[in-house]
Known about the structure:
Layout: E1 5-9, H1 13-25, E2 29-33, H2 36-42, E3 47-52, H3 61-71, E4 76-80, H4 85-94, E5 98-101, H5 106-125, E6 136-139, E7 142-145, E8 150-153, E9 156-158, H6 162-173, H7 181-188, H8 197-212, E10 222-225, E11 229-232, E12 236-238, H9 247-264
Amino acid sequence: MDEITILIIEDDEDIRESVKILLENEGFHVIEADNGMDGLHQISEDTDLVILDIMMPGISGIKTCEQIRKISYVPILFLTAKSSENDKIIGFTAGADDYLVKPFSYAELLARIKALLRRKQVYTCGNMKENGQNVWIKKGDLKINTTGNKVFSGDEEIYLTETEYEILSLMLKYRGKIFSVQNIYESVWQEPFFNNSANTVMVHIRKLRLKIEKNPQKPQIIQTVWGKGYRIDTFHKKTSDGKNDRNSAVGIFSCTAVVFAYIFYGKWSIKPVF
């Protein structure tokens, strides 16, 4: 198994050192940075996860996160004393995948890190392969290659974070199903749902819509079902040979033909209702 590299960007030396010891005892390779600028220089293609403080001298954690998102979609976990709901929304909007408030337990930190790494592995490997073929799911200009975990609008690739793709792939896998925010949170984050977890989900849905919807104010792909949650209607599916999945269409046509035959040949008597 390849060594997993975690970058810690934290100006508090005691916290940085204690988290480093914890992670190294779990077998992770740890790189340290005590400020945002140094962290940006340390990040590379080999970085598997970033643990990032918000309040740091010089460039803040929020700005650091935004800069990382310009060059990488590595999972980012904010580790910070800023605990208000608005602070969390700002963090997720900047591009964070998760948010843990200080003081924290080492057990919870490890659980969140491992959950993020699992999602990264799924995102990287592409676990939605069907029958050895490239499978494309299409709705309008939006196309999703579920084998390579890639999303396109027309011919232009849309870059999603691991969390955004996990939400999208979950809803695609069960197209037509209504997902409550609790369903989404517990399926994607793999931890119990709390009241403030709803905002986490809604921020990610909003960011996802900004990337995949033509008009995020009037979403056609991720639809809101008021009082219940979100859903994605059935998409048009194609396999790598370009053939459409016509099962639904054939079924509808067959049923229509049967009904027409019954009416035409007088098998059914249809009377107007006044």
